[in-house]
Amino acid sequence: MERSTLGTRQVSIEFPGVKALSNVDFEVSTGEIRAVVGANGAGKSTLMKVLAGANPEYTGDVLLNGKPIELRTPLAAKRIGVQIVYQEVDTALIPTFSVAENVMLNDTVVNQKGVAMNWRRMYREAQKVLDRLHITVSPRRLVQDLTLAEKQMVLIARAVQSQCSFLILDEPTAPLSETETSRLFELVNHLKANENIAIVFISHRINEIIQICDRYTVMRNGEVVDTSPVTKDTTTREIVEKMLGRSFEENFPKEVVPIGDKVFEVDSLVSDDGKVQGVSLYARRGEIVGIAGLVGAGKSELCKTLFGAAKVHSGAINLKNKKLRMTNPSHAVKSGIALVPEERRKEGVLVNENVAFNLSISSLSKYCKGPFMHKPAIKVNALKQVEDLGIVTPHVQQYVKNLSGGNQQKVSIGKWLATDCSVYIFDEPTKGVDVGAKREIFHLINDIAKQGNAVIYASCENSEILSITDRVYVMFDGRVMAELATKDTSEDEIMHYAVGGQSPQVREEHP
Ligand code: ADP
Ligand code: MG
Question: Same CATH fold, 262-509 and 1-81+164-174+196-248?
Fold first, then answer.
C-alpha cells in the first residue's frame, strides 16, 4: 500500500491575545495511529483545524507527502482526504435525518445528479459502509435518537465513506463509556489495518493512548515538545510529565472534611421520562457523595431531576428538612441547589458571552440595582474568580467559546461560587479536562465541601469516584444498586453493581 504523509512546517497561528501555535513541525503517515497529547489549551485542536483547512490564517507550510500545499478551506482539506471528527459531534450531524442520510451526506451533496434522490441506493451504500466497519447502528434510525457513541460512529462512517487518508479524532472518547470506547478502538484498529488511513487521536486518557497508539506527540503552550514511539515501557507518568513540563504525583490527596447533618434527602424519586426509577439518597454537610454507574445508567437524568431541569413524576426532595416543590431550575437555585451539568457547552455556560458575564450570571441579582447591571462589580468578581480558579484567558472579556475545554469547565463551576447554595451537583465535571486542570477542579470541589456544603458527584470514571468521594451510590438502569463507603470499596466492586450485579442481601431476599 502506498504511504502518504500529512504535516506542517513552522506553522504558527495567533489569535487576539493568544499565540495558539508557534513554529509547529508535525508529520503523520498513513498506517499509523498517532496520539496528540497536551494540557487544555496547548493547541491540539488548533493544529488539527489547520490540517482540516479550518484555520486559514496560519503562517508556515502545510505539507502533503513533503510538498507545500495551500490548505485554506475545509473543502481543500477534504479533497486531499483529510477528515476530522470534532469534539462536538452534534454540530456535524442533522438530527432529524436518518443515519443513512447522515453517513451519505457528503456523497449526496457532491455526487447527486439531477434532483431525484435515489433513496434505495443511498440506504444500500450506507449499509455497506456500516457493515464494512462492523457498525451495527441501523441506517433507518434518526440521528436524534442515537447515543453520543453511536453519533460518533456515524461521523466516522461518513468520514470513511468519503475519500479519507487522514482521519482526525479530536477527543472522541471523552463522552464514551468503557465498552463504547473499546468498540471505538476496534474500529480505529480496523481502519489502520484495512483502510490504509492515518489516524490522529486526541485524548486526555493517557492509558488509552498507550493502548492503541503507535507514537505520541506532546504539545505544550502552542509548541510541539516531543514525539516518541509508544513501547511496552511507556508509562502514563512520563507522558503526563512531558505534557505538564514538570513532575506530577498521580494520586489526588483527598482532604478530610468533618461531616455534619443531613442537608439533602431524596425519597423514591421517579422522573417523568422514566429514566430515574425510584432513587433514594441523602447527602450531609461537608460530604462528597458519588453517583457511579455506566453511561446511560441514569446519572445525568438524576442530576437534572434533582435540579428541577427534568420533571418529577413522584417522590420527594427535601432540603434542610423542607420539602421542595421544584418545577424548574430557577426554583432549585433559589432554594440553594447548584448544578454543573454534563454538556457544559449546551447547558453549563453561555459560550457566546464573555468570561465575566458567565461568572456572574448565577448571582446576577447581587450585581443589579433595579434593571441596571453594575458592570464594575461584575468585573471585580470575575477577576477574582479567574485568579482563584486559575482560569487561563487573556482577559475577562474573552468569549467563553474561545477558551479550552478545561477552562470552560472552570467557568462553569466558578459561576456558582459567588452564590450561596448548600447543595452542589456535578455531572461528569472532568470530562474532556486534562490531568492538571482535573486536579484543580478536585481542589475546588473539596473546598466547596469544606465550607459545609453537600456535594453530589456523578461520574462514570470509577477511579475518580474513589479519589474524591466519601460515599457512593451505584446506579444501573435508573436504580440505585448499592450504597458503599468509598474507603471500603474498589473499582471492581463498583463495576459489579454498575453492570447490574446484585448485593448478597438482595439476592437472599429475592431468590
Ligand atoms: P487544546 O485543543 O489543546 O485544548 P486549543 O487548540 O483549543 O487547545 O487552544 C489553544 C489556545 O488558543 C487556547 O489558549 C485557546 O483559548 C485559544 N483559542 C483557540 N481558538 C481560538 C479562537 N477562535 N479565538 C481565540 N482564541 C482561541
Ligand atoms: Mg481541544
Answer: yes
Which residue minimizes the CA distance to atom 13 of ligand 1?
41
Strands annotated E in 65-197: 67-69, 82-85, 166-170
Element (H, E) at 50: helix 44-51
**Domain spans of the chain, in order of start:** 1-81+164-174+196-248, 89-162, 262-509
Question: How far does residue 143's CA lie from ligand 2's centre (Å)?
Answer: 24
Q: Which ligand is nearest to the CA of 43?
A: 1
| Statement: 262-509 belongs to CATH 3.40.50.300 | yes
Distance 90 CA to ligand 2 centre (A): 16
Inform me whether the pLDDT recorded for 243 exceeds 70: yes
The three cell numbers locating residue 293:
454507574
Band (pLDDT 50/70/90 cuts) for residue 505 is low
- Residue 511: per-residue pLDDT: 42
Q: What percent of the chain has pLDDT over 70?
A: 94
248-303 pLDDT, tens digit each: 766 677 778 899 999 999 999 999 988 999 999 999 999 999 999 988 899 999 99
By the 8 A CB rule, do 378 and 356 touch? yes
Contact (Cβ atoms closer than 8 angstroms) between residue 149 and residue 89: no
Given a cut of 90, whether residue 413 has pLDDT beyond it is no
Question: Is 20 close to ligand 1, i.e. is its CB under 6 Å away?
Answer: yes
pLDDT (tens digit per residue) in 463-492: 899 999 999 999 999 999 999 999 999 988
- CATH fold for the domain made of 1-81+164-174+196-248: Rossmann fold (3.40.50)
Ligand 1 atom nearest 43 alpha carbon? 6
Indicate whether this model's pTM tops 0.85.
no
Q: For ligand 1, what atom is nearest to the CA of residue 49?
A: 6
The rounded Å distance from CA 40 to ligand 2 centre is 7
Residues 6 or more apart whose CB falls under 8 angstroms from that of 91 comprise: none
> In testing the pocket of ligand 1, which one of 11, 18, 225 has its CB within 8 Å of the most ligand atoms?
18
Q: 202 CB less than 6 Å from ligand 1?
A: no
Does the C-beta of 42 come closer than 6 Å to ligand 1?
yes
Provide the strand spans (E) within 139-222. 166-170, 198-202, 215-220
